[in-house]
Design goal:
Blueprint lengths: L2 H13 L2 H12 L11 H16 L3 H26 L5 H15 L1 H5 L2 H5 L4 H24 L2 H7 L2 H12 L7 H18 L8 H22 L6 H22 L6 H27 L2 H4 L6 H13 L5 H21 L5
Length: 341
């Protein structure tokens, strides 16, 4: 077994080639290269179809959970962008331009059957959903501009309690003891992060809590229309309410955006479109009480963006509370994987 190597080494030594000896040692030390695996397009397509098939056959609550988490990630990116430009541009102007861009991007969805999209048997609920969105957006984004990212997000977690209670009282949804416990544990994590002493309850903090309550009202109306109205119909009526409401204050307090701000506004509008669709769809197919605890994950992204963009360093209480929130949400995901849960 060592014969060929020894003979080659003897020849090199006879030639007195130190460099050649080193080169041979390198060749001998190099392991044989693995053959790279080549994936064909057909393999990738088959993998994508299998993944899509698993998602389609998953329980409604699991599908809703995935969509809700995706919408939360996109919403967090959008909020960071709005907070960046909100110090110079009026909030109503940002929200107007955001809604216009969102509406333009949704035109293909609306134009497939514009008459059918506008047709509704629940005009009161549609307009109510739009008004809930208007109130929650104004309160939320004013609080966002004037409060630290993580603090504002944490205050909004009162939404989880509101949603669980309203789901039981209005929608008559069944909430088992485990979900109540998961929601309660998650809220304890929020309290740990807030260190509630009463000192932080200023007008912007109260606006954040009010926004959370109004968001619940909008989510409840979506759930009430879930099986009778399309996602496109719900979104177009929201646009019908929001665009005129934001138009007048935008004209009165208009501030010309810079080229950078225009670019950021376009990104915000595009992200908002995807996030809004995912949120609406998740609220249609998943139980409100089952999806509510996922709101806690907003804090994790708020901490990341707060540190990266606004130099807001989380303290120990925030980190401990976030760990509790992660555990609560992970448990809820596991419960939602069960069929019919």
């Amino acid at each position: 077994m060592n014969g060929p190597i020894q003979e080659r080494g003897t020849d090199l030594a006879a030639g007195g080639g130190e460099e050649a000896l080193l080169a041979t040692a390198t060749v001998i030390a190099d392991p044989p290269r693995r053959r790279a695996r080549v994936y064909r397009m057909a393999d990738l397509t088959a993998l994508q179809r299998r993944s899509a098939g698993r998602f389609v056959t998953a329980s409604p609550n699991l599908q809703g959970s995935v969509m809700m988490l995706a919408s939360i990630v996109l919403f967090s990116i959008m909020l960071a962008g709005i907070k960046l430009i909100g110090e110079r541009l009026p909030v109503t102007q940002i929200l107007f331009l955001r809604q216009v861009i969102l509406s333009v991007l949704l035109v293909p969805l609306f134009m497939k059957d514009i008459r059918g999209t506008l047709r509704t048997n629940h005009l009161g609920l549609q307009l109510g959903r739009g008004l809930f969105s208007l109130g929650s957006q104004l309160c939320f984004f004013v609080a966002l501009v004037n409060l630290p990212f993580a603090e504002m997000t944490a205050l909004g977690f009162s939404q989880v309690l509101f949603m669980t209670v309203l789901a039981v009282v209005i929608l008559k949804e069944r909430v088992d003891a485990r979900r109540w416990i998961a929601t309660g544990i998650g809220f304890v994590g929020v309290l740990v992060m807030l260190k509630p002493t009463g000192e932080g309850l200023n007008v912007y903090a109260l606006m954040s809590i009010l926004a959370a309550l109004l968001v619940c009202g909008g989510t409840i109306t979506i759930r009430m229309m879930a099986t009778r109205e399309s996602t496109a119909t719900i979104l177009i009526y929201q646009t019908i309410v929001l665009v005129p409401a934001y138009l007048v204050p935008t004209i009165v307090w208009w501030v010309p955006p810079t080229p950078f701000e225009w670019g950021l506004l376009l990104v915000i509008g595009a992200i908002s479109t995807a996030a809004q669709w995912l949120f609406t769809r998740a609220s249609q197919i998943g139980e409100a009480a089952a999806l509510a605890p996922f709101e806690f994950t907003r804090l994790l992204f708020a901490v990341v963006f707060g540190y990266a963009l606004f130099a807001e360093l989380p303290d120990l209480a925030t980190l401990v509370g976030a760990a509790i929130v992660i555990g609560s949400t992970a448990y809820t995901i596991r419960r939602n994987t069960a069929r019919g849960s």
